[in-house]
Design goal:
This protein has 271 residues and is an all-alpha fold. A two-stranded antiparallel sheet has the order 1-2. Helix 2 packs across helix 3, helix 4 packs antiparallel against helix 5 and helix 8 packs parallel to helix 9.
């Protein structure tokens, strides 16, 4: 029954989502909207599961001293800190003891993780320190009224600390990652564009035409380059994109039918 019930539910709801598309009735639309609301709820549980999985992976990396385990501390500290910023706002012009609150809470988690990897004698020490930091966190949270938690509203997402960290730390990190991707793309393009055969030569010539179109130093031949580039982008490139989209669509339909009919059971941990 542990396997038949999920297969039955997936098949029933999958078939309903197919047939409701062809039944434009109020009852059908109401059930459709009701099921879509459930996807939001399931998505929230999936996010919680993802957070727990990330925590387990980071802690396991620290405890077993895998390569670059120190970065896992930064990951967990950043996770806890951003979550606190997202749920808190200041009541006045000052944050009061908010930053000691953040530090003591992070130290609590760090001491608990250290206790997991310490030997018997050191484990008691780390657990004692974790208890001290946790008590300090609770006292600051109760006694300090310069800031407050907001779990039921989105005020925390507009707080100065959350916005400042997002704009000044996360966005530069994303920009750095995408900047590094440019070098990987250039390296991959160099390997792909080498004229080793006819197809690679055509790919190289097409790429050169498209790139030279944006070069301002090809003044007299720019109109010809522009026409050739537009033809490449609108005819062969668009045809290839549509072929890929059709192939992806057929693959999605085939996979969905396999899931609905119970042939594909990877979502239950079994193939």
């Amino acid at each position: 029954m542990k396997r038949q019930i999920p297969v039955f539910l997936v098949g029933m709801f999958g078939l309903f989502m197919i047939f409701q598309y062809f039944v434009p009735h109020e009852s059908s639309e109401w059930v459709y909207e009701f099921l879509l609301d459930w996807t939001i709820i399931i998505g929230i549980f999936a996010m919680a599961l993802g957070l727990w999985s990330m925590y387990r992976v980071a802690v396991d990396k620290i405890v077993t001293r895998k390569p670059n385990w120190g970065y896992s501390y930064l990951t967990l500290t950043g996770l806890v800190t951003m979550m606190l910023f997202g749920f808190t706002t200041q009541n006045g012009e000052r944050w009061g003891w908010f930053f000691p609150f953040v530090i003591t809470l992070n130290l609590t988690f760090i001491m608990i993780i250290q206790a997991r990897q310490a030997k018997q004698g050191g484990r008691s020490l780390f657990l004692g320190l974790a208890a001290v930091f946790f008590v300090a966190t609770i006292l600051i949270g109760i006694l300090d009224d310069a800031w407050a938690f907001h779990f039921r509203t989105a005020e925390g997402l507009r707080s100065t600390m959350f916005v400042a960290f997002f704009d000044n730390i996360l966005i530069p990190i994303f920009a750095t990652m995408f900047s590094l991707l440019a070098f990987f793309i250039a390296s991959a393009a160099y390997r792909a564009f080498r004229a080793r055969n006819l197809m690679a030569t055509l790919l190289l010539m097409a790429a050169l035409v498209v790139m030279m179109r944006f070069n301002p130093y090809f003044g007299p031949i720019s109109p010809y380059l522009s026409d050739a580039s537009n033809w490449l982008m609108n005819v062969p490139n668009l045809a290839a994109q549509r072929a890929i989209i059709i192939g992806v669509g057929l693959g999605i339909v085939a996979t969905a039918l396999k899931v609905i009919l119970g042939i594909e059971r990877g979502y239950m941990g079994k193939g």
